[in-house]
Amino acid sequence: AERALTRVHSIRERVDETLKAHRNEIVALLTRIESKGKGILQHHQIVAEFEAIPEDTRKTLAGGAFAEVLRSTQEAIVVPPWIALALRPRPGVWEYIRLNVQALVVEELRVAE
């Protein structure tokens, strides 16, 4: 059997695709997080915000890339309209993204940012 190399999508690309597919559901969650105002949210606070959105919205997001992002988010830094997320998808691996709640833009961040 011949093996084909496939490209691994970055976390930013996966979140961007999920944003396009489930825009309203993700906006509902991001708006809740943004409404907390400027500050830092820990993992348990982010999970609490996810659990506070309507059940049908949670179910829609539960199986996708955005649920993976939420599970691996260690903290969120909120500076409206931006939410920066520090993700640890596996031990020793950190990724950083930021989302603009109003424009629905996802950007990767470098550690220095």
Automatic annotation (TrEMBL):
List each copy of the Sucrose synthase N-terminal domain by range.
7-113
Keyword annotations for this protein? Glycosyltransferase, Transferase
Question: What reaction gets catalysed by this protein?
Answer: an NDP-alpha-D-glucose + D-fructose = a ribonucleoside 5'-diphosphate + sucrose + H(+)
Q: What is its EC number?
A: 2.4.1.13
An example of a GO molecular function for this protein is: sucrose synthase activity
What top-level class of enzyme does the UniProt entry assign? transferase
Supply one GO BP term: sucrose metabolic process
Work out whether the entry's keyword set contains Protein biosynthesis. no
Q: Which Gene3D superfamilies match?
A: 3.10.450.330
The answer to whether UniProt assigns keyword Glycosyltransferase to this entry is yes
Which InterPro entries would you find in this protein's record?
A: Sucrose_synthase_pln/cyn, SUS_N
User: What family does this chain come from, according to its entry?
Assistant: Belongs to the glycosyltransferase 1 family. Plant sucrose synthase subfamily.
Name listed for the protein in its UniProt record: sucrose synthase
Taxonomic lineage per UniProt? Eukaryota, Viridiplantae, Streptophyta, Embryophyta, Tracheophyta
